[in-house]
């Protein structure tokens, strides 16, 4: 555990230092106040069919839908940021039944006060769950391991934040993190408790850092690093690090490379990694 925490701390330090250096290079521009709204959806589809194909192969069909929304009110004395992320996809290979590939619902709202300080006080609320039931296909038959709001994660935090233009934003504060379950109580239950616990409340400290860098005219890299540590097991840090590279080929066609690192000692003693590469159609509604 100590070694894992040390690696996470080193990675975090390197990321934050590089982000800050990039942020200092960004040219300052006159602020534009008011609402800034953006809703972008994309659909990725992969299909293969074989008929009397001598080299072998299996029919397959994979699809993934993504929708991201951002509504931000930016004023001289305050800012209010609302974000939503929705992902769902399925994969079918050969005669196997369809299996879920991605599934996530994430909502976040942050209100920050601009008092002319070096940092800005803020309050924030975050919620996360999934659309449908998830399975462990390593068992026969497959075993259900999660469902909508099972688990569901909610975090409220109050603290201070710092930003340098649109490229670099970071905040840290006191937080309260709740985990709610219905049937799959392993996400909230304390193994040392005599009774099964379906909910878990953790006071602690949360840090969130966002970084966006335009690598090319049609290519952008975005990164979101979230760290949470409760007050009981302060050295057990929950880490979620999302990295996305988006390349715009045409007005409606994008290539997306997503890489995510996740670590929560309650769920697994090892870090979890998810990587995906998708080519699909993207459309901006706002």
Features:
single chain; 286 residues; mainly beta; Porin; twelve-stranded antiparallel β-barrel; two-stranded antiparallel ribbon; 1 helix; 14 strands; flat
What's a quick, concise take on this entry?
It is flat, with a radius of gyration of 21 Å. The protein has one helix and 14 strands. It is mainly β.
As a percent range, the share of strand residues is over 45%
Judged by helices, strands and strand pairing, the structural class is mainly beta
CATH architecture descriptor: Beta Barrel
Largest sheet: number of strands, sense, barrel closure: 12 strands, antiparallel, barrel
**Terminal residue distance:** 45 Å
Q: Please, how many helices?
A: 1
Helix content: under 10%
> Strand order, biggest sheet?
1-2-3-4-5-8-9-10-11-12-13-14
Counted up, domains total 1
Mean pLDDT: 86
- In terms of per-residue confidence, which ranges show pLDDT below 50 for 5 or more consecutive residues? none
Q: What is the tally of beta strands?
A: 14
3D architecture notes:
This protein is mainly β and 286 residues long. 8% of the residues lie in helices and 59% in strands. It has one helix at 2-25, and strands spanning 34-48, 60-74, 78-93, 99-113, 120-129, 134-136, 143-146, 152-164, 168-180, 199-216, 219-230, 237-248, 253-263, 272-284. The strands form two sheets. Strands 1-2-3-4-5-8-9-10-11-12-13-14 form a twelve-stranded antiparallel beta barrel. A two-stranded antiparallel sheet has the order 6-7. It starts with a helix and ends with a strand.
């Amino acid at each position: 555990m100590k070694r894992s925490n040390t690696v996470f701390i080193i990675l975090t330090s390197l990321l934050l230092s590089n982000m800050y250096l990039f942020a200092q290079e960004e040219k300052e521009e006159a602020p534009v106040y008011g609402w800034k709204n953006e809703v972008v959806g994309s659909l990725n589809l992969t299909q293969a069919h074989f008929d009397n194909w001598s080299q072998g192969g299996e029919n397959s069909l994979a699809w993934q839908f993504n929708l991201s929304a951002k509504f931000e009110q930016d004023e001289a004395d305050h800012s209010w940021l609302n974000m939503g992320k929705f992902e769902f996809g399925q994969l079918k290979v050969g005669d196997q039944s369809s299996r879920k590939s991605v599934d996530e619902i994430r909502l976040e709202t942050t209100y920050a006060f601009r008092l002319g300080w070096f940092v800005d006080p803020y309050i924030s609320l975050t919620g996360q769950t999934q659309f449908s039931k998830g399975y462990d296909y390593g068992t026969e038959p497959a075993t259900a391991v999660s469902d909508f709001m099972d688990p569901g994660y909610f975090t409220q935090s109050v603290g201070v934040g710092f930003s340098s233009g649109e490229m670099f934003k970071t905040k840290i504060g006191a937080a309260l993190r709740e985990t709610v379950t219905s049937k799959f109580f392993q996400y909230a239950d304390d193994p040392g408790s005599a009774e099964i616990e379906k909910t878990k409340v953790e006071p602690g400290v949360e840090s969130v850092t966002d970084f966006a860098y335009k690598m090319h005219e049609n290519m952008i890299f975005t990164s979101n690093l979230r760290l949470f540590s409760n007050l009981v097991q302060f050295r057990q840090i929950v880490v979620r690090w999302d990295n996305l590279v988006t390349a715009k080929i045409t007005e409606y066609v994008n290539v997306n490379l997503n890489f995510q690192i996740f670590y929560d000692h309650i769920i697994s003693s090892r870090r979890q990694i998810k990587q995906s590469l998708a080519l699909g159609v993207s459309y901006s509604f706002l």
